[in-house]
Specification:
alpha/beta, five-stranded parallel sheet, two-stranded antiparallel sheet, 7 strands
Length: about 375
Amino acid sequence: MNTRFAIQIGQRHLRPQYQLGAPASESPVCGGGAVGLFAILTSHSLARRADIFTNFGIRGTIQLIVLWVSLLVVGSMPAVAQRPVISTVDSVPPSQAPWEELVSRSPWVFLGDSNTYAGGYVAQLEARLRSAKLPVKLLNLGVSSETASGLSEVDHPFKRPCVHERLDKVLLMTHPRVVFVCYGMNDGIYDPPNAERMEAFKAGMKTLAEKVIASGSELIVLTPPIFEPEPVAAKGKFGPTDTGRYAYFAPYHRYDDVLEQQAAWCLSNELHATAVIDIRTLLKEHKQQRLAADPTFAYSKDGVHFGDEAHGLIAKQILTALHAPTELIEQEPTAAELSASVERTKILRDAYLSATGKNRPGLPAGVPVWMAEQIVSEIK
């Protein structure tokens, strides 16, 4: 039985969740099922029981009786699945902490928008796990422009892709054991805060969470990151446009307010995720430190698509949140290790996105999955 947590790194807050199994009545070896089986087995006539002695002998018959009695005893006990088991990271020995469980589960699948598709933080994680000889396969299946809500601005060159157009096939084909999701940047469609759009984001995320958890995978949610107004202001690109509308190329000047609302909701963990990791607070605080030394600092050139520094911070935050060993967090991968990880994750990304169905134009064609697996196995 997997115990689920919400981990808010900024405040070190743990929120244990219940995960209950099926009622005893639904199991043929629990509760009424065992009693019913016992009744069936013991309802034969005396003549039929004599046949049992004949066919199985005394020893075999005794073993059958022991089995029947065992089923009756088990059936009369309260089902374990009906009792919630609660555990927190701080209350269990280090060997039983979530990190050890998560690295024993493979593959890890990453879903998200363009910052996930870019793959920087996924490659950072892959390089670190590989250097520690942890046998975890990472699949980056982020898609640029994607949303969880299904919303799209009028002036977008094509209807924004939605993760729900491909989610079922991704889960079926990859059989993930851990799924990381990071959405929100595109879900507000670069407009001012709006209750209807916020509800669409919540609904999309809830459906996503339900399907991931139902698949048997652990769900790890990354909060939306930050929107940076400075690069947009420097180019004079704030909306609205002449048509009075906002879009990714003409965003609302305080669009970060939308991401702030989304992040706060994610951290409430209505999604019942194994972990909710606050990358937003990390990026904001680190940026303030960098601005003190360099007033022109920004993670991105357009307010949205951040570079290597932010990707590295996010990778470390994920490891920290999941209680990875300190040495794994602090030891930076070499340039050669990171380059190899970037190559491996991109080849697998393109292959699996092609195989599971592209939901937007412009994605590169990938080789067949079997070929991609062969190629990356030879990249050291």
